[in-house]
Amino acid sequence: MYYDEHGKRVRTKKEITDEDGKIRKGCTVIAKGEVYESHMFSVKNDRNKSELFLREVKESYTDLINRHISDPEQHLKVFDKSSVYLPTKKIGKNNPRATEIEADNTARQEWNRTADMALITGIAEEAILEVKQTEIHDKVSQSIKSKGWLPNLFRSIVGKAKDFLQNLIREKDMPPKPMLNINMAEFRTMQQLMIRIQDRAREIKNLQDNVLPKLKQQLSETTGLFKGKERKAGRTARNPQG
């Protein structure tokens, strides 16, 4: 086998020799019976393609980086897919899909903030994870199978899941519904008494507002014999000798 300076195989020895018939520098001749090709690496391990291996590598490198960071608050963390949060995507330089990824990240961050609020409110983490699974993961999987990856549809699904979780938060914040703790027979008796009292109150109000003013008006307008007798009785009382 004859190979030139660039490692390219040629057909004859003449193609790799100089004017003096010597093999040029950098060219290779493999004699008959020698090994001319070998595999330096074994077959790829399928484990190296698994999610578990990738997570182990991430955790290993994250720990290595954190050793050189003195402030514990600045330590890096590997995102936990089993948490209630959704991961955001990094936007590379000059990425043509930058606007789309940024919109996706905004939807994911809104969900994450709502999840934080749900935890603070007292909603169990298991309940939030169930909403995340049924309202996001399951529906996104169904959408991809039927329609393919549609970014706008993904954001719509995340938005509806966020609204669903917000409703749970509002229900958690609402005071418990009051319970009627009274004997129903006593309640009906009190209700009938209240109705009777309200009827009497309306009658009294009618007398004060309508009947009594009319009687006063009629009395002030009274003329004739009654007023004449009233005046005569007044004079007699003032002059008993007359």
Quick recap:
This protein is mainly alpha-helical and 242 residues long. 57% of the residues lie in helices and 2% in strands.
* Strand order across the largest sheet: 2-1-3
SS content category: mainly alpha
Work out the strand percent.
under 5%
Order of helices and strands: EEEHHHHHH
Radius of gyration: 49 Å
Question: What shape does the CA trace take?
Answer: rod-shaped
Number of distinct helices: 6
How many runs of DSSP E, i.e. beta strands?
Answer: 3
Main sheet attributes: strand count, strand direction, barrel closure: 3 strands, antiparallel
Give the helix/strand layout.
Layout: E1 2-3, E2 9-10, E3 28-29, H1 51-66, H2 98-121, H3 125-147, H4 151-173, H5 184-220, H6 225-238
Antiparallel strand pairs: 1-2, 1-3
Helix pairs in contact: 2-4, 3-4
Describe this structure in words.
- This protein is mostly helical and 242 residues long.
- The chain has six helices and three strands, in the order βββαααααα.
- Strand 1 (2-3) and strand 2 (9-10) form a beta hairpin.
- Among the domains are: 1-38, no CATH class; 88-175.
- A three-stranded antiparallel β-sheet has the order 2-1-3, with no helix packed on it.
